[in-house]
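Extended Data, panel c. Modelled sequence:
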Amino acid sequence: MSELPLSLLSLLALTPILVVFIFLVILRWPAKKAMPVAYFFTALIAFTVWKTSAPQIGAASIHGLVTALNLLFIVFGAILLLNTLKACGDIHAIRQGFVDISPDRRVQVIIIAWLFGSFIEGAAGFGTPAAIAAPLLVAIGFPAMAAVVVALIIQSTPVSFGAVGTPILVGVNTGLSEQPQVQQLLTELGVSHEVYLHSIGATVSLFHGIIGTFIPLIMLAIMTRFFGSKKSFREGLAIWKFALFAGASFTIPYMLLGRFLGPEFPSLLGSLVGLVIVVSATKAGFLQPKNIWSFPREEDWEDEWRGEFHVDAHDAEMKVSRGHFFKAWSPYIIVAVLLVITRTVPAIKGFITQSGLTLSWSNIFGTAISTKSQPLYLPGFLFIVTVVCAYGIFRMNGEQIKRSWKESGHTLLGAASALIFAVPMVQVFLNTQSATLEAMPRVLAQGVSELFGSMWPLVAPTIGALGAFIAGSNTISNMMFSLFQFEMAQNIGVTEYIVVSLQAVGGAAGNMICVHNVVAASATVGLLGKEGSVIRKTLIPMAWYVLFAGGLGLVFLNGVGLNLGTLILAGITVFILWLIVQGAKSESSSG
């Protein structure tokens, strides 16, 4: 073991995260400048303090580079799909089709980001929802930054069951399986590992369902506050009834599916049920706003809001038949169907992953680190397949195709300069274990645990969020910290599966601020260099989410009474009621 005290080691383990936060969020450096600094700083601490070997750092960096290339492939596919629709001109039909459902931007963002984005998360995960939802929102007239912020905010509730339950079935399962202390508890309880894992999934769906019901309301408040002409929370809160209705339309089936069917289906099917309910209700005029809210005129947008993608508003003012709208929307339907089939049909998934192209490098530089890429299974490949289909659907000519590829390649270069340092930095951070010390994330978590003791359930979601912020993945966060959270629960004498569930919930919320998710989503709409501004805005709902989860955890474990959990939930209840009152006042004054 190192001779340095745990408090100092945990502070040193925190410094790479602080470097990212200082340069990216506080000093507002673009990610392409901040992330190289963070990478070299992390590698220096790993080599000098953690005594991580040079081959280990090199192997982690290569694994990170391969992961970054995978992400760039997804980003390129999403950008190419958007530019293809732009080149053929049918992107305006998509815009007008949504205007026909509702011209109100608040309603549109709930349908596209909250419901359709959650459906894509349930099918694919891996940052795909933001890569689809953000460009689609820009295509219908949203400012680029607004589109990215709201697309990231919904990267919370559905994430724990994203990619057909991977964060639970792979993340938590890998963290807990075959661990002696876990096996001993299961023997004492007389339950199987599968039943225990299902209990964790059901509890996660309950926590997310309670918190997630309010996410559309929070999302609207942030959107109108930062991107409205009046810069007012109230304008978003004015449709609080519809926002809560849309939240519950997803979260109620989501919780039932998590309780009775398992981790594979809450996000995938819950969002689909919610989408049908909310779109039908919207068309019927149910709880629709009397006054239509929209962004300021494009010429009045702040420079910070703008991306490289542009849609002329007057071009969008066109009559669109139902058939034309369906034709324009068909690429998104195709990509959604392809994602669901390749992720949920075992025979097809097995054929692609086992028979398809796999590039791998095992035991890089003689270490235990390996890496691989399966290009045909990545969503980026499915985006490109969809683009090829679009060439036939829209009868595109060579000049249109050439222009879409050229514009997409140009945008991709900006994202590449940030991601090729951001992801290797993460992998070095995760793989700093040496003969004397555990990896930095584990040391950091141990340091935090000494500070909070019996109040650990309050901060358990924050540790999960920290893991996702670092790793860019709820699944990896759960792999890293599930056993640690289990051990902490045993140390303070509380129910283990509830604390592990809080880990999974926090890990989902951390996706809202994960650097390479922010970079990737920003790249799809040409918003590079403004990642810090995005994170400053998504920090608000992320902090609210983990605090709410921590308060719920304390109440679930300690009951309702004069305790910190009850006080936190009381405060959150007052806050939500205040939001509703503000919304009611705004609704009344506008009516």
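The beta strands are 359-361, 371-373. This feature is highlighted in the accompanying rendering.
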